[in-house]
Amino acid sequence: MDRIVLIGLNHKTAPVEIREKFAVVCVDTSGPLMNLGQMRALRESFYLSTCNRMEVLFTTPRLDEGISAVVGLLADIYGQTGSALKPYLYTYIDQDAVKHLYRVACSLDSMVVGEPQILGQIKDAYRQATEAKTSGVILNRLLHKSFSVAKLVRTETRIGSSAVSISYAAVELAKKIFQELQGRIALLIGAGEMAELAAEHLLSNGVERIVIANRTLERALALAKRFNGTTVGWDELAEELRRVDIIVSSTGSPEPILSAEQVRQRMRARRNRPLFFIDIAVPRDIDPEVNRIDNVYLYNIDDLQGIVEMNQAERFKEAARAEHIIAAEALKFDGWLRTLEVVPTIVSLREKAEQVREAEVRKTLSRLESLSDEEVEAIELLTQSMVKKLLHDPILFLKRTSSRARKDYYLDVARKLFHLDLDRAETEEEEDQLSLDSDKMS
């Protein structure tokens, strides 16, 4: 039976400089991770890439070979040996992998517990896997189940009720730097969901005006209209640092968009008034050397972790309830997975029964040529119903054995009892003998 494996790294196991290397590769649809589908040791595969995690979920009939192949691919992306990358990786197998995926989908493993964005990201990644035809029976079922488990957790708990997000944490940090935000001007670089959330929190905490810069002007204008702000051209980004106080950057740029030298030059014009950067992009938007400049404060996504933790007490209480739901649902999936082992026997049993039924019906109808079409249909329905009812108990028994320790023994007995492993010649000989016996009895 294939094993389920999940290998990955996240904000808990790898610093931002490691994660950003994978973030750049994962957005490239022709990148190395597309090679997962060509790996012989992997039967099905799926990968998820966000600013805080990169995970590869796969099934394999050869556990050690499959793990080695995936770790080798990740090491190639990292540009180091597998042993150099391994300290940052976690590996989950079978039910542990199922539980971890459910925890990720329910946002129990996120930097901000209960944030809703991760589920949409998993759905997008699954869509890519289906388009690439790398997911199959097991991963299709598992991923769809992760969606329903996430919905169940949202319905049954209050895990998403507290107003906590990365953007919220960023604003809390800004308040500590400036004491109060009244009269401050904020520049949002990027116009995605993070920027929207940041704008909402900044304005609700007293920021006077929002300025938006985005490579796509239409998107910047739409966001500016929504928050009664203004826009600035991408080429004017560095000059805008003279006038603003808070910069929240969340673009998808593969390289820094503001250098330390650009910031240093504008600080002279500012007469060293404090400038506060919050870089929540992965890869990072702001050159880390900016933090060495006097009166400039730069925080990246990892720096927000402490503030996030301070605002999650209520969600952690609900997380305990969510963990119970996840454990129960993981057991249910494990039960379904085990039934896959008995499916071939059940299919063979049904096929053989249908072959016997069809053969006997043909012989009977050949002797009753005067029957109408309605009568023939009635005989067909009658025999189909009889076969279905006769097989009900044996099939139910086989399904129940899937969770038993002696499952292989019961499957072997069933296959021998119903002669399911006979070759075609033996099967035809058996059917002929059954027919002769039937004729004698009649």
Overall description:
- With 442 residues, the chain is an alpha/beta fold.
- 55% of the residues lie in helices and 12% in strands.
- It has 3 domains: 3-162, Glutamyl-tRNA reductase, N-terminal domain (Beta Polymerase, domain 2, 2-Layer Sandwich); 166-310, NAD(P)-binding Rossmann-like Domain (Rossmann fold, 3-Layer(aba) Sandwich); 342-392 and 402-437, no CATH class.
- The model has no long low-confidence stretch (mean pLDDT 85).
How many domain units?
Answer: 3
Uncertain regions spanning at least 5 consecutive residues? none
The CA-CA distance between the termini, in Å, is 46 Å
Structural class by sheet pairing and helices: alpha/beta
Largest beta-sheet characterization = 6 strands, parallel
Oligomer: single chain
From the 3D structure, determine the CATH topology of the largest domain.
Beta Polymerase, domain 2
- Topology as a string of helices (H) and strands (E): EHEEHHEHHHHEHEHEHEHEEHHHHH
CATH hierarchy, class of the largest domain: Alpha Beta
Find the CATH superfamily of the largest domain.
Answer: Glutamyl-tRNA reductase, N-terminal domain
Strand order of the largest sheet: 7-6-5-8-9-10
Residue share in helices?
55-70%
Number of strands: 10
